[in-house]
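Lecture 7, part 2: worked example. A protein chain together with LIKH6CAM.
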Amino acid sequence: MHVVVNAAQSVDGKLATRRREQLRISGPEDFDRVDRVRAAADAVLVGVGTVLADDPHLTLDEEDRRVERLRNGRPGNPARVVVDSTGRTPTDARILDDAATTYLLVSASAPPERREALAAAGAEVVVVEGGSGTERESESDGDHVDLVAGIHALAERGIDRLMVEGGGEVIYSCFAAGLVDELHVYVGSMVIGGRDAPTLADGEGFTEAFPRLDLVDTERLDDGIVLSYEVGDGTP
Ligand SMILES: NC(=O)C1=CN([C@@H]2O[C@H](COP(=O)(O)OP(=O)(O)OC[C@H]3O[C@@H](n4cnc5c(N)ncnc54)[C@H](O)[C@@H]3O)[C@@H](O)[C@H]2O)C=CC1
Ligand SMILES: Nc1nc(O)c(N)c(N[C@@H]2O[C@H](COP(=O)(O)O)[C@@H](O)[C@H]2O)n1
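Predicted complex, written out as C-alpha cells:
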C-alpha cells in the first residue's frame, strides 16, 4: 500500500481555527493539484473529526479526470474511507451519497445499531479488529481504529494507493504507525493561531524516533507554497 498524506496549513501549522470550522487556506490552483492527487488514488481517507467538522464530499471536481479513470477501468471517483471508531458519522453525511463506495472503518466497540444505521445509509462498514503492532505503535482502543489492520482491510478490497486528507489526529496516527510514504503540505500565507487549533500532526506527539522527511519538491501555487516530501527510514 502506498500512502500519500495531503493537507493545507497556515504558516503557523494550523489546519483550521480553534473552532474547527472549515477554512479556505489554499486557492483554485491548489484545489486543482489536490484533485489530481485524488484522481491518482484508489481511495481518500479522513477521520471522523473531519467528517463532523467539514462534511466533505471527497470526490473529483474535474469531470475529465473521472472520464479518464473510467476509461482505465477504474471507478469514476476514488473510494472514500472514514476512520470512525464508534460510528459517529451522521447518516446524512455527504460522504455517504452514491458518488463512490464509502468504507467506514469502525472498531469492535462500535454499537451494532450504529453499524446497521450506517450500512442502511449506504456505507460499507468494516469492523477492524485489533491487529499486529508496527515498529512504532499500534492503536486499537475504543477511540482509535488500528490503522495497520485498517489498511490491510482496505488492501484486501483492492486499494493499493491511499490518499489521507486529514485531520491532524489521523495524520499523526498514520505517522505513528509508520504508514506514510509521501507528504504534501500546502502552506498558505496566513496565520491562524490558537493553542487548541488542529495542526498537521496532533495526537500524543513524538518524544523520540521522529519521522524524518526528505524534501523532494517545492511549488508556488496561489499565494502559498506546496512542500512535497518522501518519508525517510527514520535515520536522521
Ligand atoms: N486544512 C486541511 O487540509 C484539513 C483540515 N481539516 C480540519 O481538521 C479538523 C479535524 O481534525 P481532527 O479533529 O484532528 O480529526 P480527524 O479528522 O483526524 O479525526 C479524528 C477522530 O478519528 C477517530 N479515530 C479513529 N481511529 C483513529 C486513529 N487511529 N487515529 C486518530 N483518530 C482516530 C477518533 O474518533 C478521532 O477523534 C477540522 O477542523 C477540519 O476542518 C481536516 C482535513 C484537512
Ligand atoms: N487542500 C485543502 N485546502 C484547503 O484550503 C482546505 N480548506 C482543505 N480542506 C479539506 O478539503 C476537504 C474538502 O473536500 P470536498 O471539497 O468536500 O471534497 C476537507 O477534508 C477539508 O478539510 N484542503
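Residues 28-40 form the longest helix (13 residues). The chain has one domain: 2-231. Keep this in mind for problem set question 3.
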